[in-house]
Amino acid sequence: MAITREGRICSFCGEPGGPGTDLRLLGGLGAQVCATCVDDFHAILHDEEAVAAASGPFPWERMDDAEVLATLPRILASAEQNISFAHEWVDLLRSRSISWAEIGRALGVSRQAAWERFSRRAADKGATA
Ligand SMILES: [Zn+2]
After folding, report:
1. How many angstroms does the Cα of residue 84 sit away from the middle of ligand 1?
2. How many separate helices (H) and strands (E) can be counted in the chain?
3. In the predicted model, what is the mean pLDDT of residues 48-65?
4. pTM here?
5. Are 38 and 12 in contact (CB under 8 A)?
């Protein structure tokens, strides 16, 4: 299965984007960023007062409990997106006939541990090489 931007969310604001939406996403290593967040971060990084403000207390220190609670599902959605991307990446490696031993070596774990963590396709369930 090809890796796509379909159904992805911005890892920074949690907004859904990608194909079929107005929100363009760019990313790498599983994290995605929307144009709005890029613009906002760019504006902050080029404004010394904004940099100073952003370097102060963490945003959650100013949030009330309801805001902190409301943020939790967005954090988990971003984390799950990254885990899903790792699985897609392993699928990519497997489609290139990279062995479970090589994947395990890259992760610093055994072939068996890599297979147990990432095998999910029916074709891979019987292939431990
Ligand atoms: Zn965003």
Report:
1. 19
2. 6, 2
3. 89
4. 0.78
5. no
